[in-house]
Every structure is written in C-alpha cells, then in structure tokens.
C-alpha cells in the first residue's frame, strides 16, 4: 500500500510546483485574465453546419477579433471561439457566409464567478433567394492529383477512401483492412497502431453500438469519403459542455457529401461448393437530422475475412466449427433542428446454429512425471438473441438516458469421450449432455448535470441493472471405467439452477472550478446489490429404477425428484452487498491535454445466507478499499499517454464457504476460506510522434502489471483413479512488462510506397503450484516467458494496382525452476504477399494473397509445420456499377486447418476443431442509391 501513496504524494507535489510556477510566470508577465466565449453557425432551414466568417464587435461596432468557424468532419457540428477579458461586457457577433445574409447575435457576459467559458446563442443564417445555387449550370471542374492514403490533422488520423484500390462491391471492412496501422479481429474489434477502438461511428454518431460487424459488412465502400481516428468527448461531457471524463478512442466513418442525404440500398446473394451459401441486404436513409437503416444477413459461412489482405488466414486463427447465422436489425437516429434533442434506437434479432467438434491431446507437467489426457467432443447448439439499445439526450436539460435489454434462449446437446494416463491407462469416460439456458438482462443509466453561475456544477448518475438466468437446466450422463481394478462408475446428473440479481448505484458529484481549466472533483455514492442463487444437483442414478439410467428422463413427481437430490453438492445462497464510496480528485481537460487524479475510498459490507447439507449459516465480511487512479494525456502531433491504477479484487463470497464439490468424481473442488484479496498494480505509457508533411508516425510504449496475492491452484493427482483435487490459494511473484514500438511512413516522394513496422518484447514471470502425486504439497513452479513479436509490411499503390509484401515473426522462450522442465524455444513466422489489379478496358479486378506459415522448435514433430495458403477473387461490375459479380476461391491448395497449439510451463495442449472445407463461391450484389434533388429547397 505504501508504493501507491508515495507515487500520489510525488504527483501532488509536482502539480503544486507546476501551479506555483504558472502563478509566478503570470505575475511576471502581468497578463490580463481571460475567458473563452464560443458559438456555432447553421443554416436556418436545414440546420446544416456552415464554415462562416465570424466578427466579434463591441456595442459601437468596433471590431475586437475575427475568426473562421471550424466545421467538424466528426459530426453535425460547427464551432468558433474567442478569448476576451475576464469581465462583464456586451458584444455583437456577426456571421458572414457566401450566398447567405449576414446574421447578427447580441451577447452579454454577466456574472462570471469562476467560469472559464460562456456559450453564445446559435447563428441561424438565411440563404439569398437568388444566389446562383438554385438551378444554375456550372461547368464541371476535374482535378487530378496523387491521393494521400493517410494524413495527420493534429491528434486526428485521416484515411482518404479514394486513395485505396478496392474491387467493386467491397464493403467498409475491405477498406479498413487496407488502411496502414489498422486491423480487424474476428469478433469485429478494430485496432489502430495496436490500440483498440472504443467505438465505431458513422458521421460522428453511434451505429449498432457494440456490434461493429453490422457496419463493417454492410456499408458500401463507394459511399465513404474518409475514415477518421481520434479521441472524442463522451456523451456526458457533451451534455456538460466540457470534458468531465476521459475521451473515447473512436473510428468515425464519414460519408461522401452526395450520400449525406438520400437513400442507399444493397443486396448480395451467393452459392458455392460444399453446400455453402450466403445472402444479405442493407438499406440506409440519411438526411441532416435523421438516419434510418435496416439489415438482414443469412449464411452458413462463419468467415468474414476476404482474399487480398495481409494473410490473416493463418491456420491457428481459423474460425472453429460450422456456424449458420440468421440476423435482422434496425437502427434509428433522430434529432431536432436545434440539436437539443437526440434519440438513438437500435435492435437486433439473431439466430445461430452451431456444430462444434474437437479432438484434444494434452500433457500436464509434474515433478513426478507428466500426466496425459486425450478427449473428443461434439456439440450441437441452437441459440436465439434479442437486443435493444436506446440513448436519449436532452441537451437543454443536460439529461442523458441509456437503456439496454438483452434476452437469450438456447439449447444444446453434446457427446464426449476422454481418457487419462501416465505410465498406463488410468481411466476412460464416455458422456452425453444436453442443456437449456434462458436469460434476460436489463440495464438503465440516467445522467444529469447543472452548472451554477459561479462555474461550478453538480451531477447525478444513476445506474440500475436486473439479471435473471432462469432456467439453466442441464442433463449429463457419464460412465467412467477404471481399467486397473475393472470397476466403473455411473453418474446421471440433472442440474436445475436459478440466478437472479439486481443492482442500483447512485452517485452525486460536485465540481469546483479553478483557473486554467483545473477542477476539483468530489463524489459520494451508494451501491446495493442482491444476488440469489439456487443450485440443485440431482443424482438420478440413485433412484431405484433402471429407467433412470437412460439419458434425459425425469421422475413424474417432485417428491421422487427430491429423493435424488445430491445434498452434498447442492446449495442455496442469498448475498446482499452494500458499498459506501467517496472520492476526491483533481482534473484538467482542454484541447491540448487532459490530466486526472482520483483518490477513491470505499467501504463495502456483505452478508450471505448460505444453506448446504453440512453448513447452514449467515456470514458477514467488510473491508475498506483505496484504489487511486492517475491519467495524463496530451493531444497533437506529439502525443503522450500515461496511466497508473491500483485495484483490489476480492474472492467470491460463496467460494469462501468451507465446503467441497465432488459432483464430478474426476475433478473435485475444495473451497479455501483463507483466500486473500488480490491486489493489482497496472501502468501503461505511450509516446507518439507524427509528421504531417511526410505522413509518418512513430510510437514507443510500455505496459506493466504486478499482482500481489495472485490466485494459483493447489492440485493433487490421484494416480490410481486419475482424479484431480483442486483448491485455490494465493501465490506471489507474478508480474509482466512489455516494451512496444512501431513506425510507418511513405518511402517515395509521390507516397506510393509505404513501409510499416512494429514490434514488442514481453517479459512474464509466472508463479503457480506444482502438481503433486497422491499427497498435498506446496512446491511452487516458477516460470519465465519471453515473447518477441515483429511485423513488417511494404505496400505499393498506383492507380489500379496495389500490392504488399508481408512478414511476421513470433518467438517464445520459456524457462523454469522445475528439475525436469525442458527449455522451450519456439518461433512462428509468416511471409508472403498480396496483390490487386483492375484490368483496363474490361474492368475485371483480380485480388489474391499467398502466404507461408511456418512453426519451428516444438517438441512434437506434428507441430513443426509449413502451410502455404493461397486465396483468389475475381470481380466484375455491370449496369454502370450497380450489379457486381464475384468469384471467390478459398484455400486453393487445401492447406488450411483448424489445429491450435498451446504450450506453457504448466503443460501443452493440441486441439483439432472442425472447420469449413475449402470452397468456391459465386455471388451477385446489386446496389441502389438515390441522391437528394440538386434544385433549391
């Protein structure tokens, strides 16, 4: 605890010194104190943003200052500001813009208090009736030049969509995959320069928030003007009129002007070999204040990566199993002309049918000899999900509401076999299973703020949630054979569990405004959580009837079912948690930097009513937590980012009850009431240098993680039965540190050739308990892992040709204090390339990628492999680009596999998953767009 306190004291001292230095400097220079005044300009009819010329005047019309209104590409906002003397005064603000009448607004600075800014009423400009914009004929102006793929505008990265060469029919995901420094994960997560994007936006607004794939796979590439990456103020900060919390790291997709108002629709369907098929449709209506969209997607191709990319199709990353998806969704975003009201609603319905099959071989390292296990399984599942999100913002009331509902309903059936052996076969088990799960989750958040004349402001934040998992029914029939003594064990388990949970959290904050954008933040809060769990396990094989040796049969009466209750492994619990919290902090947010220091203290009390066959009690626990948080960030061409936080993680209260669970005779769990709280120190820092003139970017950073009282597992292995007995206990000595860096820039003067390289080195110290044979032991296993990663890419683009050479390397070195541990030195590397070219005259686009994936240094020969993966695609458009045909060939050499290897100091595992076989698919896509009428309003 002393380390974080020392760090905080040092930072507070530094801040005090900085404040004193700033004060001394101001006294020396005797600068006049100022305040910021800001406003916005819009078309009076459409409320469209205008880049007007603003003149600030005194009441006698003498000019004080002038500025051009900044029109943000990030959203539907325009903005300008002035610095004026910090005193009561009256002003006239004039807005001028070509084709519009001049617009004047009277503005008065009244009581100032400690306010640092004031808002000027909106300018609503009226267009000239005959300004040459209505029905006039203009000669077409064609400008040709070299398009720059990437540019830096302050802290914003801008990717010009027209600078990338994509086949007709491409969607947004194809554009992002070609953007330097950007990558898309299989689940739709987006990373830029190694940092995860918090939110994917469309014209500055949320679009199916939380499900990036909807926009990635359905928004046509040809509608995109550019893609911007920047730090955006949160909804709460926008309501408060200033940054009151950390900005989000967002990717904002900007539509071309001609698609900012009108209709967009596209549909695609395809069929291929191996009974593969797909179909999707998407429609979007957009104007200055409303956006409506709907989509539908059906396919049995659980794959969204496309040929022509950077070889992300390495075998270890193949999607697992076979998946059939059916999904529909709608999204509606609307606001009033004054932009004081905004509502965003989205809803999706999803049906997924999955067929997952695996074969696994594993080895657990132990000082007395390795333990081996082999298993295979097959699972068929059918799941339905219904989700609703609604965000309401009332800017005049400074009120924000967010509602989220998620409903799931699913069933599954499974079949598995597994065996355990050391020197000889120890056990063999065959199992059948089925399950039914239904859950509902509702979340509600309401935020309100109010600013006083002094500049201070208060806020209230309410969060509530309700969760119910009911029912969660599972059948499991298993037979375990023990060859050593010729015996077997039959278990026919039925599990009936019910979980309900509610939480509400209320926080009140008061922010005291200081000079130079500093604030003192104070918060008090109360949180209450109650969770009820009923976990009933029934041993149907204990009933005196041979029919219950069959799978999935329940007794006809409740009394008969109760006779099969496994009282030693069933329990009922109700837990009540109350948390009283308070926080004091210091923060500064402006356009150049943000700094945050929070010192939160909380008092938490818990009461649990726990009912078990061997324990019927009411337990209590309470503790006080101090979890400081420090964050400092600068914005601009040189960006600095530092964060440190200390957190405490307490063990689940039920896991502290002195009971055990042997419902699975081969995996026995014993609770440990003596588990201590886990304490985590986490820090990260990055420095990024950008050069706008040459389009280069360099970053250097680190990550550090130290865990005190980490949770390890004491494991005892029964050599006669092959059963494991496990108990969680605390261990110390776990920490890791990573150094990372990256550099990207164009090579030639015309910026056709671009180089991108990144790498990292991670040192990881892992401590856990060694596996003990037939007796308890507390021998620690200490492992040191060093991971080295290097990625390099050289990309070329000119007119209709784009090509790239790609290479990747991942090395791992593992050592341990265990006597029989063999040093592990493995490395995986990839090399290859991709190309895309549109043949002039016939407008046929060819895209292909070919990559070699190699693995070396593994002890098993089957792991040291070379896989050459080749994919190709042909694209041709018809009907003036409205109809696009694609022929895609996946894995031409039939080398893709879904085998995954995992090696660490505790053991190694090799798992085979079923996956989609290679196939060829022909698709046809049709797009329709309707642009707004170019005539007058």
State the end-to-end CA separation: 67 Å
**Uncertain segments of ≥5 residues (pLDDT<50)?**
11-17, 19-30, 131-145, 304-316
Number of beta strands: 53
Biggest sheet descriptor? 26 strands, antiparallel, barrel
The level of helicity is under 10%
- Describe the global form: globular
The DSSP helix count reads: 5
Structural class: mainly beta
Report the C-alpha radius of gyration, rounded: 32 Å
Strand content: over 45%
Task: Provide a descriptive summary of the structure in words.
This protein is mainly β and 937 residues long. Among the domains are: 31 residues; 94 residues, Immunoglobulin-like; 111 residues, Ferric Hydroxamate Uptake Protein, Chain A, domain 1 (Beta Complex); 231 residues, no CATH class. It contains 5 helices and 53 strands. The chain has a 26-stranded antiparallel β-barrel. Strands 11-12-18-19-16-17 form a 6-stranded mixed sheet, with no helix packed on it. It is globular and about 105 Å long. The N and C termini lie far apart (67 Å).
